[in-house]
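Submission sheet (multi-component)
Chains listed below:
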Amino acid sequence: MRRVLYSLASDESLMLKYQRGDSSAFEVLYQRHKNSLFGYLHRSHVDLSAIEEIAQETWMAVINAAQNYRPSARFRTYLFAIAHRKLVDFWRRNKHDQKIDRIDDSGESLIDKLPDKAANWTDGVDLSMDLLLALESLSKEQQQAYLLKEEGFSRSEIAVMMDANEETVKSRIRYATANLKRLLEVRYAD
Amino acid sequence: MPTDQHDKNSELSQLLTEIEPPHSPDHLDELILKHARQKAAEQRDAKESVGMRWFGSQWKPALAVFSVTAIAISVSIQVFNDTLNINDTVEFESASAPVLNETRNQQLSADFSAESLQDSAEIGVSTLVAEETPATNAAPAAIAELLDVTAQDQAARNTGGRAETAAPAPATSVTALSAGAASSIAPPQQRVEEIATPAQTRRAQSASASSALSSRQQSEPNRQQLLALLTRVLLITEQYEADDTVDTSIQNADAQAQQAALQDAFAALQGDAPAMALAIERYQEQRALLGSIQLPQTLEAAIAELN
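Outcome: structure written.
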């Protein structure tokens, strides 16, 4: 019954309930955002083990900081901001601030095969996968700006998450979009 | 071009949403939720322990503060209630009884007492004079009686108890004695006479004075007091009590005019039963304040006497 009621509650109210010691409120909140967060991390980084590690660190940080939580922004923004920082920290620890090299089963880099694949879109090529690969070829700043925009955050929110101003975020998104198009060459020919 | 770019952007977004990401593994979910429950339990325990610990260490000062506060509040309420009771008493009295001018009352009492003192002083003088006269009048008779006794004793001593032979002697002696006494008493007799005459005159004067005084007691002072009393009851209302000049003017008015005013005021009350009842009450009250002075018992009697 409580879960049913909590399903109607906002993220911020659930977090405040958890702050007061109600663990069932957090369970509802976790179920609501776990897949969205996992998908964002997946699009940012393909390595599944790394994604799980970052996801765990993100949620642990939310749990440990529950007593200091203040509903000054949306909970989802708060969650993704922590996830972005954990992702950046992971890249720094592993020196992955540039492109990451995805390899296929034969050990060849998928990025190198991307232009050939892009030429055969109409032949059932997995465009989505190629998009992921293209995303990974972007600089991290452009990739994150673009992905957070696709997650539904505003430029101001992205600016706060990335510790940059809105104009910088705007240009990063523009460049990311242009690069993705160029890399994919998806129906852009006139 | 912009439209094309917007379409291209939307296509990219569409591609991105088609990517079905892997779901969060169950072991990760359990790990995170377990940690969340543990933290929540710790938070609940911490709150309870903080509350109890604080209570355990702070209950004595808290109890002391509470006790002091409770005592202070109760004392304040007591003082407030006492103040209210006093004020209520004063208001009750003032609401039910006519407002009295303390200073006027004291002055009136002082006036009456001064007059009574004066009267008593005069009465005392007349009494003194009256007391003096009986003593001086009684002097010759007492002396004569004393002489008779002395002569009888002397005769008894001389005759040795023979009364017959000694009788003439005592008579003679008595006569001589009386003559001598008369001669010796003559000045006192004269003095007595001298005294008696003024005493008699004075007695007559004092009698007349006392009678005059008594009549004066019954007439002039009583009338003055009655006038003052009726003036206070019928003419001087609350609005004038604060104004001594008005009061003085009323009191200094001609007696006849004052009497007429009082009669008019009493006649005006005839048709107003509540006002009449209030006037009667005021009269009784003022009469009681004046004490033992002989004044009519009722307002109507006082007006009748005034007439």
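Remark: The interface with chain B takes residues 18-23, 26-27, 30, 34-35, 37-39, 42-43, 48, 51-52, 55-56, 59-60, 63-64, 66-67, 127-129, 131-132, 150, 177, 180-181, 184, 186-188 of chain A (CB under 8 Å).
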